[in-house]
Amino acid sequence: MEIFNILNELEELIETCPKVPMTSRVLVDEDKLLDYLDRIRTSLPEEVRQAKWVVQEREKVIADSKQEAIRIIQDAENELQTRAEESEVVKKAQEISEEHHQQAQEIASQIKQGAYQYADDILGELEDNLMKVLEEIKDGRNELRESK
């Protein structure tokens, strides 16, 4: 930066100037000192503009970083909400599935019980018919024995 070079030159001028005897003061050439001050003034606006630009860029980077951080947080919150909702959907689906499974088991049990009852009724009728037929066979055999 130009201003630092000028300040270094000014410092060197002061160090090389003759000293006033018995004091810590120095004799500085007025024209040279004024020349350095003019150079500082002309360099200063450029240096200030550069510093201002650096500050603006820094603020822009900070603002962009804040916006990015907010966006990341919002994305994370949205993802969390989506996963929570999906979790609730899965949980509800599992509950419904369990209810349907229980209902299906109950219906299957009722059908099975009905099938057993129907089979028992049919077998009971068949047993009764067979008993009647067996009775008729016994009667028929007894008749045959008596008629001999």
Structure explained in plain terms:
The structure is a single chain. This protein is mainly alpha-helical and 148 residues long. The protein has one domain. The protein has two helices and no strands. Helix 1 packs antiparallel against helix 2. The chain is rod-shaped. The mean pLDDT is 89.
What class, by secondary structure content? mainly alpha
In N-to-C order, the SSE pattern is HH
Unreliable segments (pLDDT under 50, ≥5 consecutive)?
none
What is the approximate shape? rod-shaped
Residue share in helix? over 70%
Strand content: under 5%
Summarize the structure.
With 148 residues, the protein is mostly helical. Helix content is 89%, strand content 0%. The longest helix has 117 residues, at 30-146.
Keywords:
mainly alpha, 2 helices
In terms of topology, how is this protein built?
Elements: H1 2-16, H2 30-146
